[in-house]
Amino acid sequence: MSRQILRRPLVTEKLVKQMERGHYAFIVNRRANKIEIRKAVEERFPDVEVDEVRTMIVRGKRRRQLTRRGVREGRTASIKKAIVTLKPGSEQIDFFSSI
Questions:
Q1: Residue 76 to residues 37, 63, 68, Cα–Cα distance (Å)
Q2: What order do you get walking across the sheet with 6-9 strand by strand?
Q3: Which of 50, 51, 59 is nearest to 81 (CA)?
């Protein structure tokens, strides 16, 4: 179940700094709600206790490509992000251990 809800972790420079304070970001299924996201994180990472879940929908950006046949327009995919805050004293999630 957690694989259907949690698509992949989101790792950016800003979010790596947030990880030190116990905030982790995931790209999640668009239809998932906060309760399902909390259960999926706790199921996937057994030693973790979730304190708070914040979600947001990020619209896809418009893109243009100039080709020999003219201008092609489109958009990138929209995603839903979830920022998960862990309880103090909970184990930290290590995304980089399997690299």
A1: 24, 7, 22
A2: 6-9, 23-28, 79-86, 50-58
A3: 59
Q: Which residue has the tokens 């809800």?
A: 5
Query: In sequence order, what are the residues at sequence separation of 6 or more whose Cβ sits closer than 8 angstroms to the Cβ of residue 37?
Result: 5, 6, 26, 28, 53, 55, 82, 84
Tokens 């905030």 sit on residue: 23
Q: Report the pLDDT value the prediction gives residue 19, as an integer from 0 to 100.
A: 92
Q: Give the Cα separation of 93 and 19 in Å (integer).
A: 8
Entry pTM: 0.85
pLDDT in tens, the chain (99 residues): 667 999 999 999 999 999 999 999 999 999 999 999 999 999 999 889 999 999 999 999 999 999 999 999 999 999 999 999 999 988 888 877 755
Q: Coil, strand, or helix at residue 39?
A: helix
